[in-house]
Each structure stands twice: as structure tokens, then as C-alpha cells.
Design a protein that fits this description.
Strand 15, helix 18 and strand 16 form a beta-alpha-beta unit. The protein contains 19 helices and 16 strands. The strands form two sheets. An eight-stranded mixed β-sheet has the order 1-8-7-3-4-5-6-2. By secondary structure, it is an alpha/beta fold. Helix content is 46%, strand content 15%. The protein is globular. Bound molecules: phosphoenolpyruvate and magnesium ion. The site of magnesium ion has 4 residues, from helix 16.
Amino acid sequence: MQVATGKSILNGIAIGPLRVYKKAAVQTSQASSLTPEEEWARFEAAREKAQEQLAGLYEKALDEVGEDNAAIFEIHQMMLDDDDYLEAVKGILDTQGATAEYAAETTGENFSAAFAAMDDEYMRARATDVKDISHRVVNILTGAGDAAMQDDQPAILVADDLTPSETVQLDKSKLLGFITRHGSSNSHTAILARTMNIPALIGVDFDDSWNGRTAVLDGYNHCVYIDPAQELLTAMEEKRRNDLKQEALLQNLKKKPNVTLDGKEIKVYANIGNAGDVGLVLQNDAQGIGLFRSEFIYLESEDFPSEDQQFAIYKRVVETMAGKKVIIRTLDIGADKQAAYFGLDKEENPALGYRAIRICLTRKEIFKTQLRAILRASAFGTVSIMFPMIISVREVRDAKDLLEECKAELKERGVAFGTVEVGIMVETPAAVMLADELAEEVEFFSLGTNDLSQYTLAIDRQNPKLDNFYDSHHPAVLRMIRHTIEAGHRHGCWVGICGELGADQTLTETFLRMGIDELSVSPSSILPLRKIIRGLDLSKPPETV
Ligand code: PEP
Ligand code: MG
């Protein structure tokens, strides 16, 4: 038995044969016997055909994985129309007398290398896309196709990298899981895998000898077992059967309240990153959205999203939630979430740097554009606004003043808006220590335990070397949570948790005993959490070990 490790994109187990997929190595000759104009005409014809293919893929993805995930094919279409890209191809044709295939492939490689070196995570993720579009054009020009990715037998697909267009074309009924050497957990391919609910591992070193061998992809333990020993195989088959059983059982909990055996009710909301996630929120029966990370709208844009663009997105989410609460966190950009057009300087300590509310209070027009968009959406349902990274009462007052200015501006414009509840993220030790004062300013607190643990423990949450030290069960973190809940309640604020710790089932009872009012978690954690809550009896003394 051989074991290889990687990074899991989705918890789950896949068992079956491995199928190693190799892209066709297209031989593109450099020198052309045609004139540059003739080669350009060939390139243009292939580009037109590629655009048609992409439009078809967009429609297919729209049906299968929703508008937000389909958007990648619109991005590909835009990339194929990009002036810089086209000029680079033309430059190679004109100056090198090259074939259209060579020019397209070389441009794809050059742009990909340039994107890969960028600081901005969004742009880095485009490195694969630009190669993907160039590969498509080259395939059309040469008439070559890649080897089929799948055959009739269901398999775990193994590839160097899978582009979004390849991923969406996969026949899900024949796809047990996938493993790639490259890719990042934020790539569109990873997002598609999660949306399709397929166990996947990235960053796995493999070789051709894997092809056809039996494997167990263990997403829980970030590894793949090749030629597993019979004992392990049997245990994994049992675990997989259990997973399926659990999933099916959880469906019975839909429409049931999140209430403990002794009658304490608690809200369980969902965290989302974009409007496309709302389907999952409904599917998993969340009572509301407890954290809409609005910065993803900015990360997915080429430039500052306008008030109207943002309004359209927020309105769609709010309308779909049909009166259920939608808590929109205002822009939390900076640190690991960078968008090039903000022009932010490189910083020594980005997690402690110019980010979130600090940007919003100094670049007020960006902030006010967002606040007006959120206020407008509030006319269509139940909206709350939440400010991130707060460390002082002054910041909350300043943010609320800007909110009032925005209301006045909308009134002046004759634009409708509803009543919005205002809250803050409690994710800095300063906010915890000032919880009594801050609670006088707002209607709710949402504990951002990801950052609160980072700042309390002085441990960079991005640094994999510190994983073993990053202990969110640390008593200091738990005491901060308790303090925040108690302070909030003293002043009439409701208190929730929207950091990852909210989904930690080993702490659900502790949080309930502390008096937490709401837990906001990823959509797939909602029903498992409901199950735990419904099994608790808080009237009994807590079990001590
Ligand atoms: C947090 O810090 O816990 C949080 C929910 O926000 P983010 O993970 O987006 O920083
Ligand atoms: Mg945070």
C-alpha cells in the first residue's frame, strides 16, 4: 500500500480506480510558411470558434452549477478578447514569422507566468485560465483534442491540474473524486468541486504508475491510499456508507427547530461568500445568513464595484432569503484578501495592517458606495449591517455616522430603504475588553473567532507551520467568548459566532451554556449542528471528564 498526502478541498471519501489524465502535448512548430496576415486570419478564426465553445460551456455550467460558478466562462470569453493578449499574439506573428499555434501557446505561457508572479491572489488564480484559453485555441488550430478525461467506468481522476472548463465538462456520474498536483483551495476549480460535492485533494505528487490502481481518497485525513490493504479498504467502505447514511438522516432534520431537549432555541445561520451560495443556504435549511463576506464581490471584480452592481447582488440574496435575516459584513479587504485596484502598499504585518474598517473609514467614498447599496437592498427584506475589525467605540460611531449620511443621501434621491440592524464583529481582543461600551452602540455582536484566536494567541492564521499552536479551544479564547456574550447581554445585544469555531461540535454545548444566541456556519454544517443541538439537555449538569 502506498500513501500520498495533499490538501483536502472537501471532506468525504471516494473509493475506486485511479485514472491518470494527461493533456495532449501539442507539437506547435514555430516557423510558418504563411505570411503573418494569413496566420493572424487563422488565429482569428480559431478564436471565434473558441468563443462559441465557451458560450456553450457557459450555458452548460449555468444549468449544472449556477450562475456564479458559470461566470468563469464569461471571464474566459473576456480574456480571449483582451487587447493586451491579442497584441501579444500579433506581435509574435509579426516579429517572428511564427505559426498561429506557436504564438497562441507562447502568449498563454508568458501571460500565465506574469499572472502567477502577481501579489494579488485573484490575478494569480488567472494564470491557469489564460493557459486554458490558449490551449483551447491551439487545439482548434491543430485539430488535436486532449485524451478523454473519463471513460465508462467511474473513477478518481488524477491530473496535473484541472481547469474550470475541464471540471465542468466532467460527467459527475463517472467521477468519484479528483486529485491534482497543482491548484489552490481558492481556485475556481476548487470552488466547483465543493459545489459539486466531490471529494478532492490538491498538491499531491503522483506518477503514471497510479493509472488503473485501486485507491481510497480520504478527504478527512488529506491523503490517498493506493492499493489499500483489505482491512483499510473495508474500514473506509464502512465509513463511506456511514457518511451517506448520516447525510440521508440529516435530511429528516429539515424544517425542524434548533431547540435543545429542555427547550432552549438558538439560531443557526449560514456563512456565504457570494450570491451563488444562497442555493446551498436554502438547501441546508438555514434560518438566515449570519455572515455575507461582501469582500468577495470586490475580489471578483476588475475594478471597484459600483453602487448599482452591488445593489443588484445584495438585492438578489435578500429577495431569495424572503424575509429571513441577511447580515452583510462590510468590506473586509486587506491582509490575505487583496485586490490590485485598491493600490494597497505591501506591508510588513498585513494582518495587523491597513485593512477592513481602517480602509473604509479613510477611503470613505468606497465605504459609502457599499453602505448605500446595502441600504437599498434593505427595502427588499431583512438586512443587518456588520462592521469588521473594530477596536474602538470611535470607529463604530464614525461608521454609524457615515451610515446616517448615506441614509440622508438616499432620502434626498428619493430612494427607498428599510430599517437595518447594526452590529459589529468582535474579533480583536480590544473589542472584547470594550464589549460593555461597544454594546451600547450596536444591536448585536458576532464573534469572529478566526481572527480573535489569531490576535489573542499572537499566531498568524495563515502560517501552516503554526497549525499545531493555533488552538481555538485555548482557555483565553473561550474566556473572551464568554466575556463578550455576558457583556452583550448586559446591554441588550444578541451575540453570535460566525468564525469557524461556531461549527465545532465539541464546543456546541459549551457555547449554549454560555448563552450564545446564534451560530453562523458553512451551509453543510447546518444540519449536523442542528442534530447536536436537538440532542442536548442543558437542564442537566455538564458532563465532566
Ligand atoms: C473571523 O475572523 O472569524 C471571521 C469570521 O472573518 P474572516 O474569517 O473572514 O476573517
Ligand atoms: Mg475576521
